[in-house]
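Deviations from the work plan: none for this task. Representative record:
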Amino acid sequence: AQKITQTQPGMFVQEKEAVTLDCTYDTSDPSYGLFWYKQPSSGEMIFLIYQGSYDQQNATEGRYSLNFQKARKSANLVISASQLGDSAMYFCAMRENSGYSTLTFGKGTMLLVSP
Amino acid sequence: DVKVTQSSRYLVKRTGEKVFLECVQDMDHENMFWYRQDPGLGLRLIYFSYDVKMKEKGDIPEGYSVSREKKERFSLILESASTNQTSMYLCASSLGGHQPQHFGDGTRLSIL
């Protein structure tokens, strides 16, 4: 079974609108962390936001927020007020505490922002 | 800012060659990682290292080896390159725990 599932291969959004990218995860570890990365067409992976399993509040970083629903095992990324520069691949990843600090990545969602 | 530097952005090699991909980080991170990225498959972990001279296999280690002689440098070695190793290779480093992994710009490797 996949540990990280991103069900949306691609998403389209108009500039200035909000968009939600879905991520569900599977773990039996009570302590874990969830990360979102952005990969523009140039190839570099850019860290966006982190949510720990014991964090009481949803993480926010500027226009990025994480809609963390622990019981549903989902950690959706919300981008508010989309910009053209947000067009990129977005990856959700999980670190489980039971091992080394390795990450398991989802297959990604391609976001295209149109004018 | 953390800087992770991969030696080449693009590399073309022939089947059977021994290929070295180099990665250097400047933040004294204990942990370093090598991934390959293929369309539709996301990032898959090849090998990682949590200390000098220490290495652990990831999910897809076959056909690869690694070397970490110094803390800042983590090398990926394709012992005898094959066409199915044509891919994007990404190196990352981290402090561990809840700290994020920081990535290099990637190396697009083509094996002909």
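The interface with chain A takes residues 31, 33, 35, 40-45, 48, 50, 56, 58, 88, 90, 92, 94, 96-106, 108 of chain B (CB under 8 Å).
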